[in-house]
């Protein structure tokens, strides 16, 4: 009996709830900002990760053996080409020079004697006073004396060169590294195992090395065949470079080298830009982001990248229809330039697309649009 009593009451309550909801009506249109895509003249770029490296690097090694007598530079400081860096004890080399000079003088004296003996033999052989055999001997002695003098002179030049090598000078200008050998130690020179004394690395100019992926290589190649790039023999493309602590691409350089083939393991092409670094702010080893132009500037359709949604691997925009509802429109996208994305298909500049509240929109949803500029003025 109780069940039959409460059932009419439950049905009455449910009916009243439905009536209340119907009285409320549909939700009000969602306010959104809409904007037309913009057409901008831009030079497209690709950005790659790179690293700075020195234009040249010298490992300063001993060319002669001996005990290190003195060091004449400060580690980590700049040195100029020709500066004295190290000095090996020169006394052994000075003694070798004195000995070589004495041998050279002996050779000169023997040559003079051989010339006199040959002259006398020549006069006597004409008078049949000496045999032809003795005359031939004198000629041979002269030739031997001339050869001995040449050997003595060569040895003198060699030991003088060793003496020069005992004073080790900077072959280039740059920043000196630490010295690996301290005064009083024996250093070995003149062989593959020569002692490494220090390194010198110049900072101006500097290289920025980066790798270009296979797709980009094909892109650049197609631009060349379309006449939009000079290729390897054309003008050096200018690039912009940013370092890791700054989003601004404040450094400029030009590509001066690209490898002749792709790396088969990474499918990338090695490229290099030369960067002027007069204040020596950039240091070899720093990471960099390199922005490389792609083709000539052209007019392109662009929208804010934040106005595009994701559907797995596709991008879409919410396009305003005539009845103030929105439809999902899939678009073909190109590179990102700042906060603007290039659009190559799917919408045109007459369309109005939502640029706010896109996460809350659904296909067919009614909206209250307010027109706004795509690019802040």
TrEMBL record:
Q: Does the keyword Coiled coil apply?
A: yes
Residues annotated as domain Multidrug resistance protein MdtA-like alpha-helical hairpin: 99-162
Multidrug resistance protein MdtA-like beta-barrel domain location is: 205-295
> Coiled-coil intervals in this record?
135-162
Q: Which family does it belong to?
A: Belongs to the membrane fusion protein (MFP) (TC 8.A.1) family.
Q: What is this protein called?
A: Efflux RND transporter periplasmic adaptor subunit
User: What organism is the protein native to?
Assistant: Luteolibacter algae
Name where it's found. Answer: Cell envelope
Q: Where is the Multidrug resistance protein MdtA-like barrel-sandwich hybrid domain?
A: 57-198
Q: Using the record's annotation, list all stretches that form the Multidrug resistance protein MdtA-like C-terminal permuted SH3 domain.
A: 312-359
One Pfam family, short name: RND-MFP_C
The UniProt entry lists the main location of this chain as other
For this UniProt record, give its keywords in alphabetical order, as a comma-separated list: Coiled coil
Q: Keyword Coiled coil on this protein? A: yes
